[in-house]
Design a protein that fits this description.
With about 260 residues, the protein is an alpha/beta fold. It has eleven helices and twelve strands. Helix 3 crosses helix 4 and helix 9 runs parallel beside helix 10.
């Protein structure tokens, strides 16, 4: 498995110096990055920087509005930078408030988006939070229903394992359930606070997750990329992502 970083973790640093921040990520030893915006850099220019740094831009988080408004442009950008994965990362609380009707409509859209990406030779994925485990459709959590109802060649899993555990689900069981359909695993550690408290994301090794067991399960499930992500950092974010890759190396998971 390769070790990547979801750049949302460094959103403030990227806003100040996109290229310089990417250089720092490469110097830490991350093999690839997953984008959450491109800093208004033309695709050819970003591809040249990635090549210079020896990093893969393996995927990108793309919002629902962008998918609906400009999917062809998103496909063109991904292909230019050499990315393989397009990921829907989030839907808003206002959308989720629509309940079952919203999710059924979204699942139809996921299939449509997946067909477009598949035709372009790319893979389309969905990235979860906790709300996909708060409602059932046809006897399954929304998380599972979307993968039941959309064919595997049109929708792959980007599992955020921190949110899976936060939702009181078994991370190891969920990884095994989606073996072969799970190319990307977001490795997110957190400390469980009191009920109703916001998730307290921390550097790898500083939280409650059995990370070594999770990584072993991911390897068995043919995960391609372990993706470090920390939603909020108490420490400076660049320091946090350095701490996380150090933990991976110290525990035998070498980039």
């Amino acid at each position: 498995m390769k070790i990547g970083l979801q750049l949302f973790t460094l959103r403030d640093e990227l806003a100040q110096d996109f290229k310089g921040t990417l250089r720092q990520v490469a110097a830490m030893g991350y093999e690839g990055v997953e984008f959450a915006g491109y800093g208004d850099i033309p695709a050819e220019e970003l591809k040249a920087l990635l090549d210079e740094l020896g990093m893969e831009g393996f995927g990108s988080h793309i919002g629902l509005q962008q998918l609906e408004a400009n999917i062809e442009g998103e496909i063109a950008y991904l292909k230019t930078i050499g990315a393989r994965y397009a990921i829907l990362p989030w839907v808003s609380p206002e959308m989720v408030a629509g309940g079952e009707a919203f999710w059924r409509d979204l699942i139809t859209k996921l299939e449509q988006f997946g067909k477009k990406f598949h035709e372009a030779g790319l893979e389309f994925c969905y990235h979860n939070h906790d709300f996909e485990f708060a409602l059932q459709i046809d006897g399954e959590f929304v998380f599972d229903a979307m993968y039941t109802k959309v064919a595997a060649d049109l929708l792959k899993v980007e599992m955020d394992i921190g949110w899976v555990q936060y939702s009181n689900q078994d991370p190891i069981a969920y990884i095994a359930k989606y073996a072969g359909r799970l190319p990307l695993l977001h490795l997110k550690d957190f400390r469980k606070g009191n009920p109703g408290e916001q998730i307290d994301t921390v550097e790898l090794g500083n939280g409650d997750l059995a990370l070594n067991d999770i990584i072993a399960a991911a390897d068995k499930a043919s995960v391609e990329w372990i993706v470090v992500e920390q939603d909020r950092c108490a420490n400076p974010p660049l320091e946090s992502v350095q701490t996380s890759i150090n933990w991976l190396r110290e525990n035998g998971h070498k980039a």
